[in-house]
């Protein structure tokens, strides 16, 4: 795919949705961190349902740490992998309190050292909370990048690097959200909705249905 096509794809995605953001509900960087940890292999809707009860009761590292692993599980047991997520979150809260004055660090290495936080979660926090031009490649972005030809790659790191290299600078901050939303609602895994796709004429996917 050439530069002009990529420019046009992101111009259209921006025109259709000028201020894209995550569908996770949060009111602070710490809440976002907890929501993103909970969202691994879970839907944003499922996470929002749980955090709608959790955050009014506890939305600081101290308060969630005080719940303890079992107390936290009561709030998140509807979410997949809740046992390990509870353990990770309690440990992450302890580290935030003891090492970072209860603040979420803005640094990739510090974020990735927190239990339950991998490269993808760190990228989401750095991008969504701290507005750094990072690219968290999830299953939706991986699929869209490969199908369209924006940044094909065999694994998520290859796609992440390709996107960072090829997406025009002016779109980089919000590209993560545009691509996720496009994959979640239009370029879905089975039967992509090519007939309703606003970038169909620019997409290189051989099996597109238009
Ligand atoms: S044309 Fe189809 S395959 Fe290409 S981006 Fe749109 S929905 Fe996805």
Automatic annotation (TrEMBL):
<protein>
    <recommendedName>
        <fullName>Endonuclease III</fullName>
        <ecNumber>4.2.99.18</ecNumber>
    </recommendedName>
</protein>
<keyword id="KW-0456">Lyase</keyword>
<dbReference type="Pfam" id="PF10576">
    <property type="entry name" value="EndIII_4Fe-2S"/>
</dbReference>
<feature type="domain" description="HhH-GPD">
    <location>
        <begin position="38"/>
        <end position="185"/>
    </location>
</feature>
<dbReference type="GO" id="GO:0003677">
    <property type="term" value="F:DNA binding"/>
</dbReference>
<dbReference type="GO" id="GO:0140078">
    <property type="term" value="F:class I DNA-(apurinic or apyrimidinic site) endonuclease activity"/>
</dbReference>
<comment type="function">
    <text>DNA repair enzyme that has both DNA N-glycosylase activity and AP-lyase activity. The DNA N-glycosylase activity releases various damaged pyrimidines from DNA by cleaving the N-glycosidic bond, leaving an AP (apurinic/apyrimidinic) site. The AP-lyase activity cleaves the phosphodiester bond 3' to the AP site by a beta-elimination, leaving a 3'-terminal unsaturated sugar and a product with a terminal 5'-phosphate.</text>
</comment>
<keyword id="KW-0408">Iron</keyword>
<dbReference type="Pfam" id="PF00633">
    <property type="entry name" value="HHH"/>
</dbReference>
<dbReference type="InterPro" id="IPR004035">
    <property type="entry name" value="Endouclease-III_FeS-bd_BS"/>
</dbReference>
<keyword id="KW-0255">Endonuclease</keyword>
<comment type="similarity">
    <text>Belongs to the Nth/MutY family.</text>
</comment>
<keyword id="KW-0540">Nuclease</keyword>
<keyword id="KW-0479">Metal-binding</keyword>
<dbReference type="InterPro" id="IPR011257">
    <property type="entry name" value="DNA_glycosylase"/>
</dbReference>
<feature type="binding site">
    <location>
        <position position="194"/>
    </location>
    <ligand>
        <name>[4Fe-4S] cluster</name>
    </ligand>
</feature>
<feature type="binding site">
    <location>
        <position position="197"/>
    </location>
    <ligand>
        <name>[4Fe-4S] cluster</name>
    </ligand>
</feature>
<dbReference type="GO" id="GO:0019104">
    <property type="term" value="F:DNA N-glycosylase activity"/>
</dbReference>
<keyword id="KW-0378">Hydrolase</keyword>
<keyword id="KW-0411">Iron-sulfur</keyword>
<dbReference type="InterPro" id="IPR000445">
    <property type="entry name" value="HhH_motif"/>
</dbReference>
<keyword id="KW-0238">DNA-binding</keyword>
<keyword id="KW-0227">DNA damage</keyword>
<keyword id="KW-0234">DNA repair</keyword>
<feature type="binding site">
    <location>
        <position position="187"/>
    </location>
    <ligand>
        <name>[4Fe-4S] cluster</name>
    </ligand>
</feature>
<dbReference type="InterPro" id="IPR023170">
    <property type="entry name" value="HhH_base_excis_C"/>
</dbReference>
<keyword id="KW-0004">4Fe-4S</keyword>
<dbReference type="InterPro" id="IPR005759">
    <property type="entry name" value="Nth"/>
</dbReference>
<dbReference type="GO" id="GO:0051539">
    <property type="term" value="F:4 iron, 4 sulfur cluster binding"/>
</dbReference>
<dbReference type="InterPro" id="IPR003651">
    <property type="entry name" value="Endonuclease3_FeS-loop_motif"/>
</dbReference>
<dbReference type="GO" id="GO:0006285">
    <property type="term" value="P:base-excision repair, AP site formation"/>
</dbReference>
<feature type="binding site">
    <location>
        <position position="203"/>
    </location>
    <ligand>
        <name>[4Fe-4S] cluster</name>
    </ligand>
</feature>
<dbReference type="Pfam" id="PF00730">
    <property type="entry name" value="HhH-GPD"/>
</dbReference>
<keyword id="KW-0326">Glycosidase</keyword>
<dbReference type="GO" id="GO:0046872">
    <property type="term" value="F:metal ion binding"/>
</dbReference>
<dbReference type="InterPro" id="IPR003265">
    <property type="entry name" value="HhH-GPD_domain"/>
</dbReference>
